[in-house]
Amino acid sequence: MTSVADKLARKSSRPTATKQVRLKLVYIDFWSAVKLSFLVAVALGIVLVVGAFLVWMVLNQTGIFTRLSDVIGEVSGDDSFSLLDTFGLAQVLGFALVVAVLNTIVGTALGAITTVLYNLSVRITGGLLVGFANQ
């Protein structure tokens, strides 16, 4: 009886007829990279807003805000303090939306800058060598 390791060793010792292709990535289209980075940044912005909403809902449903308000009120001596006035759903979602818009702008700009820098560095380095194998 042969083991699995012996079968794999015999299988790997056989000559395989795989065709390998090596290509150089010497240019990235600027507008394609900008569009892709914009779409990725928008998707991450949507994830950020939905995530902030879900975290706020979980914290609100578990009563964390009221407990923290009670603790802060006892420590400060102000019984009228409410954490929900400061961190209400509208304030949290507004802040998340502003951060998402800023991340979209910055992410798109970074994608454009990275593309330009790569296209300039290709003139010096010759490009990125990428290998593909057909198995």
From TrEMBL:
Keywords for this protein: Membrane, Transmembrane, Transmembrane helix
Superkingdom of this protein's organism: Bacteria
Residue span(s) of domain DUF3566: 19-133
Membrane-traversing stretches: 36-59, 92-118
Protein name: DUF3566 domain-containing protein
Species per Swiss-Prot/TrEMBL record: Naasia lichenicola
